[in-house]
């Protein structure tokens, strides 16, 4: 038998056996708390004694035979050689047998004797005088203690479990290093799929303790006063660290009895106040609950909750008892569960907070005002977990709130952009809150009641603020709730053209408008978060209705981003509206910097949903800024981090990823996005439905294209009527142009381009206008085409989008050359310089291996012309063009340096360049040209 961390204790045993061989008699006592391996150690001693020539005899005490004489087997032999007598569980022997063993030590006629006895610490029988006499006579006492971390690791590996260090430490803490407890856990895992190693301990603990362990635990309490068992059962049911006096009160013991019982448990190695080791207490709890009636169990849990609350225990230690059996007649239970929800929500445990609030709701009748308060708190917690449930619970809470001011406060705390993606629920909520801060008239929110509006969610655990002075009933509202409610009311009505015009007037009245690209004026102070939220909604409405020019939108979004902390980023706040406006107005660096900080916030919070949103927003701004490689990288990362499904509440994420998939021709991204949209709850709703139709274009058969185009255009009109679709942000009409050309309907395509051009001229964003002019110029012929392309180049020179400028220069230069016009060489040379500068970013996407399946994505921006470069040649050329040495390139590709040199020589001949110096700019231009050739109608350059 293998001993773990016990071999050092065998040296005294060897010394004692040597003493016996010289004619002496030695008594060795082995002690330890239950489950520490005394019997296993004694078996090893027996094996060692047999190897050293001892005549070995064994005996064991038994609880069932405690009143009978000990039967150590056959009588000790009359031998001249030494004898080894090993007695396990000596404390369970009767008094005459213990006396007989003591006499053996002094009997002169006996052969030399080695006597080893095992005694369990903490059992009541161990304290009996006869047992103590034997222990006092021992020449050596060896105490078997718990296993350390390495011993636990060895025991686990012996059963085929190789775990990481942190998991081994967790097993050690949970079992206290007890071999018996570790073995019981391993037995529970037998015959089942172990699953994830990090969850093995939780899986084992969740299963019932084996009967053998329960028997041993119950036996250890036998013989102790009843108070010890009662205290142990109550400690197990409390389920955590508790002070001894609380345990004593729960067990109906006086303080003296409680202290005595706790000490008895400590002698067994069971710390009732610290609840260690936890696996042992799991077993004690099972034993205790099996012995309770249902009524006693409920009474004990409720009494435990009250005592813990009185003792000032953390709320998360009190509430599990309510979740187990309900609070009963205790009127303070709902308040405690509400406080617990607040605490655990702040700590990031949304699931427990939701459980607490749902349990508290069951304590009140359906029409109770307290129920309305709890529903509001539950909705606040569900913001990041289940937006559909949140909207449902807000709708249930509003009729239960008596004051209209309270209803307004609840609606004002619903995440802003949900009023854009859930119009039916939004209209209902706003109708129920009408009159609170309530109707929007003449660009103002008119106040019907006065006073402060406290936050009613779980985070509102502080005292309410003092009331403000009464205000006239028809003045611009200054309260946070009033501004927030106005923002939500306006966002829900964006489908109404009149509301879009009123929003711009309201924006002018706030004094934050800009003219001709200037920064906001002196009156444009940052104000409160609610004021900035309203401004974001008004700007979004102005962009949607085409009533604000791009220069003014860019100035306003810069102002909003400067004053809106990225640390407060959320996918449902006004930040989504601001980023959408920043993308279409080509705001540039301010939006990029803000998104970088927001992404860092998501990483710190470990918030995958926010990370997905921010990455997709950053991809959207990159697409509109003419950075396809950055957009492609962020969109792929966002899709990989995205949840299994996306819905209409993720509207900007859906639009952003769809735009990148279309503009970069990424089949992998499109397929992943289709899967997530199809699994979402909003697959038939405006946002997701339209995105799915767009993503279906490459998979649609030629005969089905007319129906798809009609369906797309109808979906666009419905989305615009719903108030969320922006043709500049999501240019579905432009994406329909190639379809109409394939169907032989150039007049319809030109009509779409003409309308899009009119809108772009009014808005004034150079990237969008130049792109439409370029597309229009590649569809028509003759002088008109040259005129449109020339205007496209002139417009794009005024903006930062170098990719679109390169495309327009290429199209313009090629048309001029075909028409025999002078100057085409200079224009195409400029396009090559832009391609060379643009190609550096695209090359970073080319360095990876080409996906083998035709359904997978090609590298961003396309690939080198068909047949020009192989996959390996492309990767070598990209790495070298990015500045890698031949050795670095070889290591990156897993080949020899000589292989890289051969490929480079072949590339020099194929591309007709002189060495590395000529290869680098040639590869940059190749990558840039491939980026020019991706996107809508880019194949017509």
Write a structural description.
The protein is mainly alpha-helical and 941 residues long. Helix content is 60%, strand content 4%. The chain is built from 44 helices and seven strands. The strands form two sheets. A five-stranded parallel beta sheet has the order 2-3-4-1-5, with helices on one face. Strands 6-7 form a two-stranded antiparallel sheet. Helix 25 crosses helix 27 (574-584) and helix 31 (651-663) runs antiparallel to helix 32 (667-679). It is elongated and about 130 Å long. The protein starts with 9 loop residues before the first helix and ends in a 9-residue tail after the last helix. The model is unreliable at 70-74, 435-478, 515-523 and 850-867 (pLDDT under 50).
Given helix and strand content, the structural type is mainly alpha
Computed over alpha carbons, the radius of gyration is 39 Å
Output the number of helix runs.
44
What is the CA–CA distance across the termini?
81 Å
Using the alpha-carbon principal axes, give the shape.
Answer: elongated
What are the low-pLDDT stretches, counting only 5+ consecutive residues below 50? 70-74, 435-478, 515-523, 850-867
């Amino acid at each position: 038998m293998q001993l773990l961390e016990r071999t050092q204790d065998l040296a005294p045993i060897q010394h004692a056996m040597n003493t016996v061989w010289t004619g002496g008699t030695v008594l060795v006592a082995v002690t330890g708390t239950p489950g520490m391996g005394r019997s296993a150690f004694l078996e090893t001693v027996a094996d060692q004694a047999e190897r050293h020539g001892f005549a070995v005899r064994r005996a064991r005490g038994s609880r069932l035979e405690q009143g009978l004489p000990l039967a150590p087997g056959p009588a000790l032999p009359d031998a001249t050689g030494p004898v080894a007598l090993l007695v396990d569980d000596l404390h369970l022997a009767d008094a005459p047998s213990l006396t007989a063993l003591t006499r053996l030590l002094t009997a002169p006629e006996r052969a030399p004797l080695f006597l080893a006895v095992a005694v369990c610490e903490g059992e009541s029988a161990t304290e009996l005088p006869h047992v103590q006499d034997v222990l006092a006579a021992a020449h050596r006492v060896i105490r078997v203690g718990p296993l350390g971390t390495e011993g636990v690791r060895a025991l686990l590996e012996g059963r085929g479990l190789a775990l990481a260090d942190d998991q081994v430490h967790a097993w050690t803490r949970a079992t206290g290093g007890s071999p018996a407890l570790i073995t019981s856990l391993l037995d529970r895992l037998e015959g089942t799929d172990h699953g994830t190693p990090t969850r093995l301990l939780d899986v084992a603990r969740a299963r019932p303790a084996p009967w053998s362990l329960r028997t041993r635990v119950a036996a250890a309490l036998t013989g102790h006063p009843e108070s010890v068992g009662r205290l142990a059962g109550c400690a197990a049911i409390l389920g955590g660290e508790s002070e001894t006096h609380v345990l004593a009160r729960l067990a109906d013991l006086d303080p003296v009895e409680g202290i005595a019982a706790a000490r008895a448990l400590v002698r067994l190695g069971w710390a009732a106040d610290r609840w260690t080791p936890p696996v042992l207490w799991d077993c004690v709890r099972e034993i205790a609950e099996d012995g309770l009636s249902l009524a006693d169990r409920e009474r004990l849990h409720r009494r435990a909750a009250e005592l813990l609350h009185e003792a000032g225990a953390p709320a998360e230690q009190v509430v599990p008892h309510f979740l187990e059996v309900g609070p009963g007649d205790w009127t303070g239970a709902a308040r405690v569960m509400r406080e617990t929800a607040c605490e655990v929500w702040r700590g990031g445990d949304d699931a427990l907070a939701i459980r607490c609030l749902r349990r508290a709701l069951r304590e009140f009748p359906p029409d109770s005002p307290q129920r309305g308060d709890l529903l509001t708190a539950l909705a606040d917690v569900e913001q990041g977990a289940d937006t559909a449930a949140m909207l449902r619970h807000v709708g249930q809470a509003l009729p239960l709130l008596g004051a209209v001011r309270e209803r307004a406060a609840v609606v004002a705390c619903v995440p802003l952009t949900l009023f854009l993606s859930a119009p039916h629920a939004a209209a209902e909520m706003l109708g129920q809150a009408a009159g609170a801060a309530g109707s929007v008239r003449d660009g103002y929110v008119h106040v019907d009641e006065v006073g402060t509006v406290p936050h009613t969610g779980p985070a509102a655990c502080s005292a309410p603020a003092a009331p403000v002075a009464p205000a006239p009933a028809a003045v611009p509202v200054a309260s946070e709730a009033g501004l927030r409610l106005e923002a939500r009311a306006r966002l829900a009505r964006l489908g109404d053209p009149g509301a879009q015009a009123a929003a711009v007037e309201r924006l002018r009245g706030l004094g934050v408008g800009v003219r001709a690209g200037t920064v906001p004026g002196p009156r444009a102070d940052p104000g409160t978060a609610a004021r900035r939220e309203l401004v974001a909604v008004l700007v979004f409405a102005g962009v949607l209705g085409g009533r604000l020019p791009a220069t003014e939108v860019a100035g306003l979004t810069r102002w909003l981003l400067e004053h809106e902390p990225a640390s407060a980023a959320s996918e449902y706040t006004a930040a989504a509206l601001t980023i959408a406006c920043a993308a279409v107005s080509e705001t540039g660096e301010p939006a990029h910097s803000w998104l970088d900080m927001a992404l860092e916030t998501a990483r710190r919070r470990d918030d995958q949903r926010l990370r997905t949103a921010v990455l997709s927003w950053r991809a959207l701004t990159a697409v509109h800024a003419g950075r396809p490689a950055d957009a492609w990288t962020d969109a792929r990362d966002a899709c990989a981090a995205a949840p299994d499904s996306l819905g209409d509440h993720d509207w900007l994420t859906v639009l952003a990823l769809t735009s990148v998939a279309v503009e970069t021709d990424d089949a992998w991204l499109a397929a992943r996005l289709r899967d997530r949209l199809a699994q979402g709850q909003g697959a038939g709703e405006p946002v997701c439905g339209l995105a799915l139709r767009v993503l279906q274009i490459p998979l649609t058969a030629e005969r089905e294209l007319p129906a798809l185009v009609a369906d797309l255009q109808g979906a666009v009109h419905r989305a615009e009527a719903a108030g969320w679709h922006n043709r500049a942000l999501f240019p579905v009409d432009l994406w329909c142009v190639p379809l109409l050309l394939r169907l032989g309907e150039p007049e319809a395509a030109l009509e779409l381009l003409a309308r899009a051009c009119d809108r772009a001229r009014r808005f004034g964003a150079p990237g969008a206008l130049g792109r439409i002019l370029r597309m229009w110029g590649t569809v028509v012929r003759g002088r008109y085409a040259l005129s449109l392309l020339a205007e496209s180049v002139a417009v794009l020179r005024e903006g930062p989008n170098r990719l679109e400028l390169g495309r327009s220069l290429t199209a313009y230069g090629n048309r001029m050359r075909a028409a025999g016009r002078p100057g085409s060489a200079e224009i195409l040379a400029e396009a090559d310089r832009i391609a060379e500068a643009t190609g550096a970013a695209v090359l970073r996407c080319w360095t990876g291996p080409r996906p083998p399946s035709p359904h997978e994505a090609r590298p961003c921006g396309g690939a080198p012309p068909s047949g020009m470069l192989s996959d390996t040649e492309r990767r070598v050329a990209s790495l070298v063009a990015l500045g890698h040495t031949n050795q670095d390139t070889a290591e990156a590709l897993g080949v020899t340096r000589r292989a890289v040199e051969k490929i480079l020589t072949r590339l020099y001949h194929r591309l007709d360049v002189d060495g590395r110096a000529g290869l680098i700019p040639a590869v940059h231009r190749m990558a840039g040209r491939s980026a020019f050739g991706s996107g809508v109608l880019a194949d017509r350059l």
